[in-house]
From TrEMBL:
Residues 3-86 form the Rieske domain. Pfam families: Rieske (PF00355). InterPro entries: Rieske_2Fe-2S, Rieske_2Fe-2S_sf. The keyword Iron-sulfur applies. Keywords: 2Fe-2S, Iron, Iron-sulfur, Metal-binding. This is Rieske domain-containing protein. The keyword Nucleus does not apply. It comes from Acinetobacter brisouii CIP 110357. The lineage of its organism: Bacteria, Pseudomonadati, Pseudomonadota, Gammaproteobacteria, Moraxellales. Gene3D superfamilies: Rieske [2Fe-2S] iron-sulphur domain. GO terms for molecular function: 2 iron, 2 sulfur cluster binding; metal ion binding.
Length: 107
């Protein structure tokens, strides 16, 4: 089943937005170098949501995904934790499909 969550222009480069999937889970989508990446909104450290402020999933330099609870940093492209208490663990990746109409779909 496919589920359209937004259009590509809704996610500017180096920004992120949260959405609910059809299982009622929160995911977030971010754009980096023209590619879109999505992960479940769950920190592998304590299984809590990552953001403190709405749609604030990136660090101050907008370089890494950051957990607001203990500051873990995650690689945008792979979801791997590269600093913090869950070093070496990863965010759960969510597969996306981009349609030619510019829609972003969960596959
Ligand atoms: S809960 Fe995310 S780093 Fe601790």
């Amino acid at each position: 089943m496919t589920h359209k969550i937004c259009m590509t222009e809704d996610i500017p480069e180096r920004e992120a937005r949260a959405f609910d999937n059809d299982k009622g889970e929160t995911i977030f989508v971010t754009q980096r170098d023209g590619m879109f990446y999505a992960y479940k909104n769950l920190c592998p450290h304590l299984q809590v949501e990552l953001e403190f402020l709405e749609n604030q999933f990136l660090d101050q330099d907008q370089e890494f995904i950051q957990c607001s609870t203990h500051g873990a940093l995650f690689n945008v492209e792979t979801g791997e934790c590269i600093s913090g208490p869950c070093l070496g663990e990863s965010l759960q990746k969510v597969e996306l499909r981009i349609h030619s109409d510019g829609g972003i779909y969960l596959s």
